[in-house]
Design a protein that fits this description.
Elements: E1 6-14, H1 21-26, E2 31-38, H2 45-51, E3 55-57, H3 64-74, E4 79-82, E5 87-89, H4 91-102, E6 108-117, E7 120-121, H5 125-128, E8 131-137, E9 142-143, E10 150-151, E11 157-166, H6 172-192, H7 199-216, H8 223-251
Parallel strand pairs: 1-2, 1-4, 2-3, 6-11
Antiparallel strand pairs: 4-8, 5-11, 6-7, 6-8, 9-10
Length: 252
């Protein structure tokens, strides 16, 4: 990646991210290596990424975990930072990572995501306490799941102070489309694990998720933003189990 000297590989899984991959790569251009693991984009994601100097691995699906694992396996540096195309490395986080990889105290580090929802930072509810393990040594891998993939367990993970900015939705329509896609993937995971959708799953779980986010986690203090975020979170839970019920009907 040009004159950058920080011994770090940044891995980015993509699928049709031409509209935002350039900014994501630009925020990581200080790293020694950037690997984009593409799952078969039909837009200009691959050409844009290569044009910016990233190494691109193509057809690395079928899951985000598989994409990340393929990129990690190809990394030339000992330390890896995993980011998504809708995430941005802040200046504070960059400076902190530079110090950490030079003299690490832990084998992995958790990073707090600062989530932007319709132009506003959400500080409460699920989105307000969003920690992800994203900086780690290259021998580690992600657990294979269709949705909510996570790094294998690390007993001695440290914490970084800098934020990773996350803008998951371009607008409300994009959010609803993404919710449905992730709910379907989540249902597939549950079905393969032998779970089935009961009445409680379709009623109690969504209601519980709303009450927890809106009241217990304080989203009610975020006004209409908190209300909409909490309600749509509950709807996502309902969709997941509705998709699971539909899978039962189709396959059994």
């Amino acid at each position: 990646m040009g004159p950058a000297t920080v011994p770090l590989t940044v891995v980015i899984p993509t699928l049709n991210e031409a509209d935002q991959i350039a900014e994501c790569i630009g925020r990581a251009s200080w790293a020694d290596e950037i690997i984009v693991a593409d799952a078969g984009s039909t837009d200009d994601t691959v050409s844009v990424a290569r044009g910016l100097g990233a190494r691109v691995l193509e057809a690395t699906g079928p899951t985000i975990a598989a994409q990340r694992n393929a990129a990690i396996a190809a990394a030339r540096n000992q330390w890896v930072l995993a980011v998504d195309a809708d995430e941005r490395i802040t200046e504070q986080l960059r400076e902190e990572i530079v110090r950490v990889v030079t003299k690490p105290m832990h084998p992995a580090y958790r990073i707090r995501r600062r989530n932007f929802y319709l132009g506003r930072v959400l500080t409460r509810g699920h989105w307000g306490k969003d920690w992800v393990t994203r900086l780690f040594t290259r021998e580690r891998r992600y657990v294979e799941r269709r949705v909510h993939e996570r790094l294998e367990s690390v007993a001695d993970a440290g914490r970084l102070e800098g934020y990773l900015d996350h803008i998951p939705y371009r607008n409300l329509s994009h959010q609803i489309d993404k919710m449905n896609r992730y709910a379907h993937w989540g249902a597939e995971d549950l079905y393969q694990a032998g779970q089935r959708a009961g009445v409680w799953d379709l009623t109690g779980r969504p209601l519980g998720r709303f009450l927890r986010a809106y009241f217990l986690q304080g989203s009610c203090l975020d006004g209409r933003f908190g209300l909409v975020a909490s309600a749509l979170g509950a709807y996502t839970a309902f969709l997941k189990y509705a998709h699971l019920w539909a899978l039962e009907r189709r396959r059994e």
